[in-house]
């Protein structure tokens, strides 16, 4: 599973780990993504979405129908 939110589009950020001696090594900052299952009443089925925690809060506030519409507008298959 890639660390990518279907709703907000959040992706991993990249940077460096800096040790005590100031030696730098590459690292990756992954967003907190969860797989959640929502009931989609218009289609009479469940949809499984990969969402960041901010995406989950957005679904809670705007509703699953509007969220799925936004995801489909981005061109992501649900």
UniProtKB/TrEMBL annotation:
UniProt-listed Pfam families: Ribosomal_L28
Chain spans, region Disordered: 1-30
GO BP, sorted A to Z: translation
The entry's keywords: Ribonucleoprotein, Ribosomal protein
Gene3D superfamilies to which the protein is assigned, alphabetical: Ribosomal protein L28/L24 (2.30.170.40)
GO cellular component entries: ribonucleoprotein complex; ribosome
GO molecular function terms noted in the UniProt entry: structural constituent of ribosome
Protein's UniProt keywords contain Ribonucleoprotein: yes
InterPro entries with a match to the protein in the record: Ribosomal_bL28, Ribosomal_bL28/bL31-like_sf, Ribosomal_bL28_bact-type, Ribosomal_bL28_sf
Similarity annotation: Belongs to the bacterial ribosomal protein bL28 family.
Record-given protein name: Large ribosomal subunit protein bL28
Native species: Streptomyces morookaense (Streptoverticillium morookaense)
